[in-house]
Amino acid sequence: MITPSLSPAYARVLPEAAADTPRDRAPDATALRAATGPLRILHLSALYPPYIVGGAERSVEHLAEELVAAGHTVAAACIAREPEPKTVRGGVTVYRMAHHNDFWLEDWPKASRFGRAWAKLKQQWNFAVAAEFGGVLDDFKPDIVNTHSLLDVSTLVWREAAKRGIPIVHTVCEYDLICGNAAMFKDGKPCERWHLGCKVVNAGKQITNRAVDAVVSVGTEILKTHVDHGLFTHLAPERRRVIFYSCTVPEGDPEARRRIDRTGQPMTFGYLGRINTEKGVGTLIDAFRRIGPGNWRCLVAGHAMDDSIERFKAQAAGLPVEFVGWAKPADFLSAIDVLVVPSFWAEPSPRTIYEAYTMGVPVIGAASGGIPELIGADNADWLFTPGDDADLAARLTTVMARGRGDLPDERSFQHVIQESTSERVAEKYLALYAELVAERRAARS
Fold it and tell me: In CATH, what is the architecture of 29-246+421-444?
């Protein structure tokens, strides 16, 4: 096995953003607020906490609550299994609308293949949910709308905002606008072409996306993918921006983690997230199988959407790999030395990397999707070829050989930490909101 040398520190600056994806406008929040005054901001996402299936919902909540703290009036709309009365959560007014689909998003695995395809085809013309969202717009009367994950939500909602003269920002955080399963992953591998079925069930979005006034992406690569598939091509470069997720780790304390005495303990690797094939859990286990038992262990935290976890447990039999179920990020990250993010699919911008960096935990990641942008595309010692267990095993072996004392901490991750604080992310969004609102008001005067 070839063991590469391991850089003692991470890349400390982000790769330059592409010329057509402005990253930072150095917003002056005071000047922006003076120009537009407090704003009424409405977010729309498929789900909103406490109902979550991944990191996107938490990111919307973080942003919404930070905007409230900044003095703005904020609401969030989402779909639900059953509609619920308007409530307030964390200072944010929450509208939970009926989904008006053939079945609820958590019930997709129970439907037949034909049933799922037919439901997806109908979704893009779900006038009922669009009309209900129109009612939310009329009730809340926002100055601006920011849509996020629209998985199982018709993009006709954009037209509802547009016909009321409300500017629209869309945040790209997954592939729901171009892929039927929002992952661009099929038959156990990443998609290498745009499948006909996905083109058909998303055809309407090629039209409705033109109602969007600006697009924000959580990563450069996923934004490029959308533009390459014909979306948001009507927008000028300054209206396509990259803004990282906002990230906090509740009860997380990197300094307290650093003080933990790990003398005599094995090097502890960790995986945190959904347990399935596209997340690369099998690749991780195969890599440890290559290494064999030794002075290491691996904690796997998270749940599977199906019974695949039993298959992974069988795959890890005889290795010091422990499946610990759901875990609080602060507790889990305090218990490990290195996080591994082995995603086989083009994951846009894994929240677990932000969380790990915030807690001072270094990350070995697959060179897929937005992972290199966070770790540093020129920091190859901490990246491996997606799906290549031998390559991953080499990285793991090198970490163990160099030892715990040589691992970088949060001081080496400031290139991500500084750009993903709730305050920083909110400032960047507000800069964009203010520009759009000011332009719209000027056009009306």
Answer: 3-Layer(aba) Sandwich (3.40)
